[in-house]
């Protein structure tokens, strides 16, 4: 199960790693309606240093033991933001999901990467992240790309499917937002073939992200 989780996190980080190789104009994104309120029955998590919060269904649980060093990664991210210095690596700062016999599935994770010294716009960041997916995920297919506002910040939500080498085909929902020179990527992934059963929750989860600093 840990190999599966790490593989998914590797995919969402690829766009950031390949950032400098993509500067082309992005395709037009659909405009979304005004952002929705956070679902009242969801559980809201705020990290220890007060950097961000995110909400998820009440039967989901934090899965911090699955990924080592999350608290340290959050502290390093805050330092990077405050001092405008690069992170040593792409940082996974959150992981939660529904505990099952197969692990935490469905689940949500947050990955961040800083880009000090680079000229970065939201559109360029999103296109670079998507290009990273296309370069790595076999049969990448994008169902929708919606430009919207989440927590008062410019964001893009992408619904896609494809196959990570060595793993079953997956269907994921991702949110991308740029805060200063830090890209935030929220990824929701269900069990294989069950995206439609969790789609409403996934949209509510990614739209609940609040970056507090």
Structural class: alpha+beta
Number of domains: 1
Which bin fits the share of residues in helices? 25-40%
The CATH class label is Alpha Beta
Order of SSEs = HEEEEHEEHEEEEHE
Ends distance = 33 Å
Q: How many strands?
A: 11
* Overall residue-averaged pLDDT value: 79
What is the CATH H-level superfamily?
Mog1/PsbP, alpha/beta/alpha sandwich
Strand content: 35-45%
- Poorly predicted ranges: 1-27
Main sheet record: 8 strands, mixed
Reported by name, the CATH topology is Protein Transport Mog1p, Chain A
The geometry reads as globular
What features would you describe in this structure?
With 213 residues, this protein is an alpha+beta fold. The chain has a single domain, classed as Mog1/PsbP, alpha/beta/alpha sandwich (Protein Transport Mog1p, Chain A, 3-Layer(aba) Sandwich), CATH 3.40.1000.10. The protein has four helices and eleven strands. It has helices at 2-17, 70-83, 122-136, 195-207; strands at residues 30-31, 43-46, 52-56, 61-62, 91-100, 103-114, 138-150, 153-163, 169-179, 182-189, 210-211. The strands form two sheets. An eight-stranded mixed β-sheet has the order 1-7-8-9-10-6-5-4, sandwiched between helices. A three-stranded antiparallel β-sheet has the order 2-3-11. The N and C termini lie far apart (33 Å). The model is unreliable at 1-27 (pLDDT under 50).
Jot down its keywords:
globular, 213 residues, 8-stranded mixed β-sheet, Protein Transport Mog1p, Chain A, alpha+beta, 27% helix, 11 strands, single chain
């Amino acid at each position: 199960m840990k190999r599966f989780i790490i593989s998914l996190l590797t995919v969402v980080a690829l766009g950031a790693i390949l950032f400098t190789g993509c500067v082309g104009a992005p395709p037009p994104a659909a405009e979304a309606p005004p952002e929705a309120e956070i679902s009242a029955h969801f559980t809201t998590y705020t990290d220890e240093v007060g950097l961000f919060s995110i909400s998820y269904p009440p039967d989901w649980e934090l899965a911090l033991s699955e990924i080592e060093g999350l608290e340290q990664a959050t502290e390093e991210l805050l330092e990077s933001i405050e001092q405008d210095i690069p992170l040593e690596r792409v940082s996974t700062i959150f992981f939660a999901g529904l505990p099952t016999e197969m692990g935490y599935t469905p689940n949500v994770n947050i990955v961040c990467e800083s880009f000090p010294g680079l000229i970065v716009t939201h559109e360029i960041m999103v296109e670079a992240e998507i290009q990273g997916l296309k370069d790595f995920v076999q049969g990448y297919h994008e169902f929708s790309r919606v430009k919207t506002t989440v927590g008062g910040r410019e964001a893009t939500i992408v619904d896609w499917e494809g196959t990570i080498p060595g793993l079953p085909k997956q269907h994921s929902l991702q949110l991308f937002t740029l805060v200063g020179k830090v890209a935030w990527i929220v990824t929701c992934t269900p069990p294989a073939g069950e995206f439609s059963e969790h789609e409403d929750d996934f949209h509510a989860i990614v739209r609940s992200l609040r970056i507090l600093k």
